[in-house]
Amino acid sequence: MTDKLDPKQADKLRNIGPKSAAWLRQVGLRTREDLAAAGTVEAFMRVKRAGFKPTLNLLYAIEGALQDCHWQEISDERRSELILAADAATALLPPPRYKPAAAPVTTTQMAREEDTMPVPTLFDEPADRD
């Protein structure tokens, strides 16, 4: 039986919750076999390249799902290997497409002539009426 990464069966694949399953489906990884074929780091990188913001927990969750163990049971040595591989793959990504603003934007308003004329108030003396 194939473990699916669909919302109704997210618990079939260990460590993969609804949000992670949705991300993986959106990058074409719909079954455990798809995940195994891509591998832990490639699956993580597909999610990252798609514009999502995965954390290392997803990296560990995918590894745990493939090893059929809880993600916290992954050895420190294996975690370090995964981090190094993910960092190396991330370094190959193109820079972001957006450009930050050059400087803060300020607005200058010119005073209009009617803005500079005094406005009568309640306490002003009324004009002389002859």
From TrEMBL:
Residues 95-130 are annotated as: Disordered. InterPro entries: TfoX-like (IPR047525), TfoX_C (IPR007077). Residues 11-83 form the TfoX C-terminal domain. Pfam families: TfoX_C (PF04994). It comes from the Bacteria. PANTHER family: PROTEIN SXY. This is TfoX/Sxy family DNA transformation protein. It comes from Lysobacter auxotrophicus.
